[in-house]
Amino acid sequence: MSTTMSRLAGLTAAIATALAALPAAALDKITFGTDWKAEAEHGGFYQAIAAGIYAKHGIEVTLRPGGPQINHAQLLAAGRLDFNLASNSFIPLNFVKEGIPMLAVAAIFQKDPQVLLAHPGQGNDSLEALKGKPIMIGNDTRIGSWLFLKATYGYTDSQIRPYTFSIAPFLADKTAIQQGYVTSETFLIESQGIEPVVMLLGDHGYTGYAAVLQTSQKLVNENPDLVQRFVDASIEGWKSFLDGDPAPAFALIKRDNPEMTDDLLKFGHAKLKEYGIVDSGDAKEHGIGAMSDARWGEFFKQMSAQGVYPAEMDWRKAYTLRFVDKPLAK
Question: What would be the CATH architecture of the domain defined by 28-111+208-329?
Answer without folding.
Answer: 3-Layer(aba) Sandwich (3.40)
